[in-house]
Design goal:
Radius of gyration: 18 Å
Shape: elongated
Strand content: under 5%
Oligomer: single chain
Helix content: over 70%
Structural class: mainly alpha
Number of helices: 2
Number of strands: 0
């Protein structure tokens, strides 16, 4: 990401950071569904595989959330400077 996360745009001209927000929402929904599906899966290799993949997905979600948080903090700083 550039210094201004909202400056990078996709092919439609929308800020890429907004797309990252949509990706985070979708990823969290997939994680929610995967976690709830574990209720019906007994111990064993299949459950272990789902749990590992869920952990990896949550790490990815954390990365996207951090990216969004940084962008929001930068936007907040610009907003505060603009008022002063």
């Amino acid at each position: 990401m550039s210094a201004d996360s909202f400056a990078n745009v996709d092919y439609l001209g929308e800020p890429v950071i907004i797309s990252r927000g949509y990706q985070l929402c979708a990823l969290l929904k997939v994680c929610e569904l995967a976690a709830s599906s574990l209720e019906n899966v007994g111990e064993g290799p299949y459950r272990d595989s789902i749990t590992r993949n869920l952990s990896t997905a949550m790490e990815l979600a954390e990365g996207i959330a951090s990216e969004l948080l940084i962008a929001l903090e930068q936007a907040k700083s610009r907003c505060i400077r603009g008022r002063g």
